[in-house]
Design brief:
The complex is a heterodimer of chains A (255) and B (283). Chain A has 255 residues and is an alpha/beta fold. Chain A contains ten helices and ten strands. Chain A starts with 7 loop residues before the first strand and ends in a 5-residue tail after the last helix. The two termini of chain B are 40 Å apart.
Chain lengths: 255, 283
């Protein structure tokens, strides 16, 4: 655990995760600092996406998924039955691997979260603000009523970010948000992530180590079997990792 | 190498032949009916009442009756079928119970239509006292087409990408909001395909309405509780029970053409609606 870390927004304690009988996460403990970008890296199948899904309880959609342990969000265990996942997901937004806009207009995509939350006053202003924060407004302001599928892949992903920002979450989860994008679109998203940490806590899963190095303040390394082996400032992870296996992974000895 | 090419050529030739056979069968039926019935079709045939014990005049009441029966069937079966499909796909815990329900639905699809007719007679006509009426017939036909609608709707909902659901839930939508605002609109074109198939069956089926809705001769219905004439039943009676079955051949074929036309027209409406909904669909 980095010493100088400020007040954490999410504290994960001893998290185990099972898909049926198969264990995907083993005793993961981790504190996510507020208003920073935390990257989660690791080889395929190390459980990093699974970990991300437990943070907004989207894992509940997977048949046979089970969790043990605690995930404290602002001090409250979100895995407990008393916490309403619907309310939770409004405060912890998520962006997925593949851009997944709804088959609706650009405007309605961004307005969706506001509408389902019954927050429809000043809808236009709020949609515009979300699109501006996602650095998309200038590109789409003349085609708000066009289908979201008319946008390019990179624009669609920024639309999904705008959609998530519109409901004003505290935390933004990003599950390999650039894996389906070309380098230029990727660069735009990365710039955006750096801007977003002013107002949000960003947790980004990536299998691209350069990306983790470029955008994150802290990095957690997961290795096969669902163990989190090292968590530290990104600089330290990439320049001087404490764990030998992390060093081997970073330097490309396995992946 | 040559042998592989030859095998391929033979296989494709066979596939083409199979397709041609299907088209030929369809073409023959259409030609046969059109050639014999086209002469009977006239404005009068479509808009006037039968005269002289059904040997002359038109089939207007049967057209009206079949139209009411088809529409009535959809009114009952579409909402019920869609709701059942939503339950099965979105809500029910996937497991043995759902498999059992699905099996029951599939079995329902295998029940012969005359059995539905007898059930309708016993249940709707007698027990509920609805009599031989549009209502009884529509309800009976609704049961008949329910499996078609449920299965088509289920497939349509399953074809909606899981990413849409995750996206909606991740924004703080409840499951119901997700279903109402994202899944249903996205799945609607497929649901309508089910409705199209159901419509065709409802208009064309004879056995379920023999005891529940159709009569040989009737005025225009003035309430859902009126019995009606119906095209398939009219055709059936004219061809098998009328003593003038030779003289009325043109009328029989004409009726068949009108039945085909009506089904096609109803389908066309649904197809147009579906095409409209599908515009801009890219996933």
């Amino acid at each position: 655990m980095p010493k100088e870390m400020l007040e954490p927004v999410i504290v994960v304690e001893d998290l185990d995760f099972y898909y049926g009988k198969e264990q995907a996460l083993r005793g993961v403990s981790l504190s996510i600092p507020r208003n920073k970008v935390t990257a989660i890296i690791g080889p395929s199948g190390c459980g990093k996406s699974t970990f991300l899904k437990t943070l907004n309880r989207l894992h509940e959609l997977i048949p046979g998924a089970r969790v043990k342990g605690r995930v404290l969000f602002n001090g409250r265990d979100i895995l407990s039955r008393e916490v309403d996942p619907v309310e939770l997901r409004r405060r912890i937004g998520m962006v997925f691997q593949k851009p997944n806009p709804f088959p609706k207009s650009v405007f309605e995509n961004v307005a969706f979260g506001l509408r389902v939350n019954g927050d429809v006053s000043n809808l236009k202003e709020k949609v515009e603000q979300a699109l501006r924060r996602a650095a998309l407004w200038d590109e789409v302001k003349d085609k708000l009523q066009r289908s979201a599928f008319d946008l390019s892949g990179g624009q669609q992903q920024r639309l999904c970010i705008a959609r998530a920002l519109a409901v004003e979450p505290e935390v933004l989860l990003m599950d390999e948000p650039c894996s389906a994008l070309d380098p230029i679109a990727t660069a735009k998203i990365e710039d955006l992530i750096l801007e977003l940490k002013e107002d949000y806590t960003v947790i980004i899963v990536t299998h691209n180590m350069q990306q983790a190095a470029r955008v994150s303040d802290y990095t957690a390394v997961f290795l096969t079997g669902g163990v989190m082996v090292e968590f530290a400032e990104t600089k330290k992870i990439f320049e001087n990792p404490a764990n030998k296996m992390v060093e081997d992974y970073i330097t490309g000895k396995f992946g | 190498m040559r042998l592989r090419r030859l095998t391929q050529a033979a296989a494709f030739a066979f596939l083409t032949l199979a397709m041609a056979a299907v088209l030929l069968a369809l073409g023959t039926i259409l030609y046969y009916i059109l050639a014999r019935g086209a002469g009977a079709i006239s404005w009068e045939f479509l808009t006037s009442f039968p005269r002289r014990g059904m040997t002359a005049g038109g089939i207007f009441p049967a057209i009206v009756g079949t139209f009411y029966l088809a529409v009535g069937t959809l009114i009952f079966s579409l909402p019920l079928g869609i709701c059942a499909a939503i339950y099965l796909v979105e809500y029910a815990p996937q497991g043995r119970a759902v498999r059992l329900i699905r099996m029951a639905v599939n079995n329902l699809a295998g029940v012969p239509s005359i059995v539905f007719g007898l059930f309708g007679l016993a249940f709707f006509v007698r027990l509920l006292g609805l009599g031989v009426s549009i209502l009884s017939g529509s309800l009976t036909l609704a049961f008949l087409v329910l499996p078609t609608i449920i299965r088509a709707s289920e497939e349509a909902l399953r074809a909606v990408p899981q990413e849409f659901r995750e996206g909606a839930l991740a924004l703080g939508a409840t499951r119901w909001q997700m279903i109402r605002r994202v899944v249903l609109p996205a799945g609607l074109p497929g649901v309508l395909t089910g409705a199209i198939l159901a419509l065709g069956r409802a208009a064309g089926e004879t056995a379920p309405i023999i005891f529940t809705a159709a009569v040989f001769s009737a005025r225009l219905p003035n309430s859902p509780l009126s019995p009606v004439m119906a095209l398939p039943y009219h055709l059936f009676v004219m061809a098998t029970e009328s003593i003038f079955y030779e003289e009325t051949r043109p009328i029989q074929y004409g009726t068949a053409i009108v039945l085909l036309g009506l089904v096609l027209a109803l389908d066309l409406v649904a197809i147009l609606v579906r095409a409209r909904l599908r515009r801009g669909r890219r996933w």
